Amino acid sequence: MKKIALLLILLSLIILGCGKKEVVNTDVTEILFWQAMGGPLGDALAELVNEFNDTHPNIHVKSVNMGNYTALSQKLMASIQTGNQPDVAQAYEAWIANMLEGDVIVPIEDFINEDPNFGQEEMDDIFPVFINSNKMGGKLVSFPFNKSVRVQYYNKDILFQNDMDPNKPPKTWEEFRTYCQKLTQDKDGDGTIDQYGTTVKISAWQFENLLLQAGGKIMNEDNTKPLFNSKEGVQALEFFTNILNKDKTGYLSPGYEGQKDFTAQKVAFYEDSSVSMAFMLRTGINFNMGISAIPINKTKTNIISGTNVVIFKNEEDRKKEKAAWEFVKWFTDTKQTARWSELTYYMPVRKSAMEVEALKNRIAGNPEIASVYDQLNYATFEPQISEWFETRKYLEEHVIEKVVREMLTAEEALENAAKMIEKKIAKREE
Question: What is the edge-to-edge ordering of all strands in the sheet holding 250-252?
């Protein structure tokens, strides 16, 4: 009898349990965020997204890595065609130009105008270059997200061993060239160079910087005509060719080979994104490393790189648009943008982030790094036209590489590139 009674009690509990409805929070708005952050960058993003979700119980951001930027671009364009785009996504200016033409994004300015907690004080706190690079047609259409600048990494130990001040890296093109000449050495006397001044990576971004530093321009004022096919463009290409073919103080290193060789102490200098620091720290650095602004020429202009974020229209659920803006606003406020810069070496979006303890300590520990962040005060950005993403690739494959390999003259290669983009612009305007 006791067994029967016990079974009856258990059965009743099961029945009651089945009848009880699970409480679901229907007020949670899920945001789909497409991004292309990998390695330490992806880890940092995940950390911040989780923090946002923990502190915003009514919004849940689902962050999905789409691979690299090329894959992200392709998937975004495909999703737009089918009407299945995410709520928010990383995007380059060239992509955003296409999105505006397709009327698929909500201009960020619309959210700001309706937000009583985001006024002129907040706008003034954002570095002007980020505001200007996200304006199209006079309107703020996207928002800065992961922005970087080019920097110069250098091996302080190698400089010291060669009676050079380890705290004074080269500041100009000519100084850099001289340093590389002195530091390219056959250290063991076997007739083979085993320490070079630098490596050269085929980079449109570097070419753009060199072009502007030489006093040239990429495009005309309204981005309808290329201007890089100029004497300044030739000078920019000569920077590569002199190092590789004349001085022989550097060598071509595809992909991330230059970064690997620098950490292996095969080269004294390495130029790349500020974000490269996060990857090098993860792999390990067994020497005293310096980081500074890139060497300058006639001007010290530095072009920012990296993506912005866009918020896609959602006619069926406007709550998703507003929730997406809350995430973007939170991610780019003083505390989070400083944390983002601390973890990844991306540039902070806000000026006030430079007063946050972590970044102040970073500069105090390496005064030269202040020059890296200072580049934001005289930085500019790439042409905001849909053709530029493809043009960058053309510059790398058909201009820089062919010139440094002495397959074409600088003048010929630049003229070919100018004709290519002119045709694409003309086709768009037909």
Answer: 250-252, 196-200, 267-273, 150-155, 289-293
Q: Find where tokens 């992200």 sit.
A: 72
Helix H or strand E segment including 272:
strand 267-273
Co-location of 410 and 292 in the same domain: yes
Element (H, E) at 110: helix 108-114
Q: Over the stretch 228-280, which tens digit does the pLDDT of each residue have?
A: 999 999 999 999 999 999 999 999 999 899 999 999 999 999 999 999 999 99
CATH number at residue 185: 3.40.190.10
102 and 33 in a single domain? The answer is: yes
Residues 413 and 286 in one domain: yes
Q: Say if CB 323 and CB 53 are below 8 A apart.
A: no
Is residue 324 within 8 Å of 88, Cβ to Cβ?
yes
Give me the pLDDT at residue 25, please.
Answer: 53
Assess whether 222 and 208 both reside in one domain. Answer: yes
- Burial of residue 36, with CB atoms counted within 10 A of its CB: 0-12 exposed, 13-18 middle, 19 or more buried: buried
Domain hosting residue 392, numbered range: 150-303+387-429
Among 281, 354, 328, smallest CA distance to 48 is for 328
Contact (Cβ atoms closer than 8 angstroms) between residue 202 and residue 252: yes
Q: Mean of the per-residue pLDDT values for the chain?
A: 91
Query: Tell me: the pLDDT tens digits for 28-54?
Result: 999 999 999 999 999 999 999 999 999
Instruction: Answer yes or no: do 270 and 281 share one domain.
Output: yes
Q: What is the domain count for the chain?
A: 2
Per DSSP bridges, beta strands 29-35 and 59-65 are parallel
CB neighbour burial string for 130-157, b if at least 16 within 10 angstroms, e if fewer: beebbbbeeebbbbbbbbbbbbbbbbbb
C-alpha closest to that of 369 among 143, 125, 156: 156
Burial (CB < 10 A; 0-12, 13-18, 19+), residue 53, is middle
Same domain, 313 and 331: yes
DSSP code per residue over 393-408: HHIIIIIIHHHHTTSS
Separation CA 416–CA 421 (nearest Å) = 9
**Phi/psi of residue 29, each to 5°?**
-100, 120
